[in-house]
Specification:
single chain; alpha/beta; elongated
Length: about 425
C-alpha cells in the first residue's frame, strides 16, 4: 500500500500546451478517415506510434523496458534503488474508427509527468514508470485488455499469442513482425502503485459540469447468452393464437432486462446487443432467436441479484407464450473496487488544485482493472464531449486534458514521494 506523506504544492502543474501538442502529434500516426485514428494493435501504425513514444521517453531521460507481450515501460529513476516504482499509463492502440484521446491521454499524461518533473528539477524517492499496455482495445485480437491480463495472470501468454484476427493472423506472429516483442518475462515487474488517466467515455462529468472524475469502482459484468426456441411458420397463414413466436420472446425479455436495470439504479445498466434470428426471413415467424444480455454494475451483490432475477423471470415469460428458454453465462468480470489510499490521493489532488470533482464508476473496462487485482490502483477521468468515445468524433478540450493530467501528476508524485 502507498504510504501517506507530504503532498506536492498546489503551484506545481504540468505543461498543458506541451501535452496537447503531443496528443496532436501522436494523432498524425494512423489517421482515420473522419478526423480520428485507426491505429489498431500490432499494425505498422501501432509500431510507428510506439517508436515515437519511445523517442519522447528517451529524450526525457527514461530507460525503456519491453516485455514478451510488447508492454512498454519507460522508467525515471528514483533516489532509493530499493523502492518499488509507481506506475502510470494506459494504451496507445485505438479502435478501427477511434478517437485521438481514448488511452492515449493516459500514456502521454504519464510522459508529461516525467517532463514536468525534469523541468522543475524534482526528484522522487520511488522511480516512476510510464506504461503503454498492448492491445487494450481488443478489436483486432479479442479479448480487450489482453496484455495487462497476461501481466495479471488472467490469461496465459501462449493463449494470448494464439489469438487470431479477422484475417487469420496470429497475435504472437504479428508482435514479432512489427518488432515489438521484448525480452522481459511478463508479470515479473513489481509495483508500489498504479494510476491511470482516461477520458470518461460517458456523459456524466460533462453533464454535471465537473472537471474531474474520481474513479472509485469499475463495473462488473455478466454476459448471458440466451436461446429462445419456438416454431417457424408462415406469418400470413398462422393464426395469432397458434403462434410460437421466438421473436416475441426476445421482445419481452428486452423489456425485462431494461426493467431489472432500472430497478437497481444508480450505476446499473443492462441491454441486449448481439442478436441472431432464425431463419431471418421477412415472412416467417422466427423459430429461434439467440441473443446476449449484458448486465453491469459496480457492486457484486447487486450484480448477482440482477442475474438471479433474470434467471428466475425469463423462463416464466417464455413459458407464458409457449416458447422454450435456455441460457448460460459466456462472459463475466467481477467489479473492482480501487484502492482507498490511491483514490484518496486523486481526490485530495483535485481539491488541492481547485478542480471540481465527483466520485464516479467506470462504465468501461481498463487495464487498471486487471492491475488492481495485484497492486494498489486508482483512476482519474476527465470529461469528453457528449460522452462520445470509440468514435472518430471523440473530443475533449485542452483544459480538460490539462486538469486531468494535473491531478494525475499530483497523485503520482505524492505517492512517489518528493525528496528534492
Amino acid at each position: 500500500m502507498p504510504s501517506t506523506h507530504a503532498a506536492p504544492g498546489e503551484n506545481l502543474r504540468i505543461n498543458g500546451a506541451r501535452l496537447w501538442d503531443s496528443l496532436m502529434e501522436m494523432a498524425q500516426i494512423g489517421p482515420g478517415i473522419a478526423g480520428g485514428n485507426n491505429r489498431q494493435t500490432l499494425t505498422d501504425e501501432d509500431a510507428e506510434g510506439r517508436a515515437l513514444f519511445q523517442k519522447w521517453c528517451e529524450a526525457a531521460g527514461c530507460t525503456m523496458g519491453l516485455d514478451e507481450m510488447g508492454n512498454m515501460f519507460a522508467r525515471r529513476e528514483g533516489t532509493d534503488a530499493d523502492a518499488l516504482p509507481v506506475y502510470v499509463g494506459s494504451h496507445l492502440d485505438t479502435q478501427p474508427t477511434g478517437g485521438k484521446y481514448d488511452g492515449v491521454l493516459g500514456v502521454l499524461g504519464g510522459l508529461e509527468i516525467i517532463r514536468s518533473l525534469n523541468d522543475l528539477g524534482i526528484q522522487t524517492k520511488h522511480p516512476i514508470v510510464v506504461t503503454n499496455w498492448t492491445n487494450e482495445e481488443g478489436t483486432r485480437f479479442a479479448p480487450a485488455m489482453l496484455a495487462s491480463g497476461v501481466f495479471a495472470g488472467k490469461h496465459t501468454q501462449d493463449w494470448a499469442y494464439d489469438r487470431i484476427d479477422a484475417g487469420g493472423k496470429r497475435f504472437g506472429d504479428e508482435l514479432e513482425r512489427i518488432g515489438w516483442k521484448g525480452p522481459e518475462k511478463v508479470g515479473d515487474r513489481k509495483m508500489h502503485a498504479f494510476f491511470e488517466l482516461h477520458i470518461e467515455q460517458g456523459p456524466i462529468l460533462e453533464a454535471e459540469r465537473c472537471d474531474i472524475g474520481v474513479v472509485t469502482h469499475g463495473q462488473g459484468l455478466r454476459w448471458i447468452e440466451c436461446t429462445v426456441t419456438g416454431k417457424e411458420s408462415h406469418t400470413g397463414s398462422t393464426p395469432m393464437s397458434m403462434r410460437k413466436n421466438a421473436g416475441r420472446g426476445l421482445a419481452l425479455i428486452t423489456e425485462l432486462v431494461h426493467e431489472i436495470a432500472m430497478k437497481n439504479q444508480p450505476n446499473a445498466v443492462g441491454a441486449i446487443g448481439h442478436v441472431d434470428v432464425y431463419p431471418n426471413s421477412r415472412n416467417i415467424i422466427p423459430g429461434k432467436v439467440v441473443f446476449t444480455v449484458d448486465m453491469r454494475t459496480h457492486l457484486l451483490d447487486k450484480l448477482e441479484g440482477m442475474v438471479a432475477e433474470f434467471n428466475e423471470r425469463a423462463p416464466k415469460i417464455c413459458e407464458g407464450i409457449d416458447v422454450s428458454f435456455e441460457c448460460e453465462i459466456v462472459g463475466q468480470f467481477d467489479p473492482p473496487a480501487f484502492d482507498d489510499v490511491c483514490v484518496g490521493a486523486i481526490r485530495g489532488a483535485a481539491e488541492r488544485l481547485g478542480y471540481s470533482h465527483m466520485d464516479i464508476v467506470s462504465g468501461a473496462g481498463h487495464d487498471a482493472c486487471w492491475i488492481n487485482d495485484m497492486y494498489p490502483t486508482a483512476m482519474v477521468m476527465c470529461p469528453c464531449v457528449d460522452g462520445l468515445s470509440h468514435n472518430e468524433a471523440e473530443e475533449i478540450s485542452p483544459e480538460w486534458a490539462a486538469a486531468g493530467a494535473d491531478v494525475l501528476f499530483h497523485a503520482v508524485v505524492e505517492t512517489a514521494e518528493i525528496v528534492s
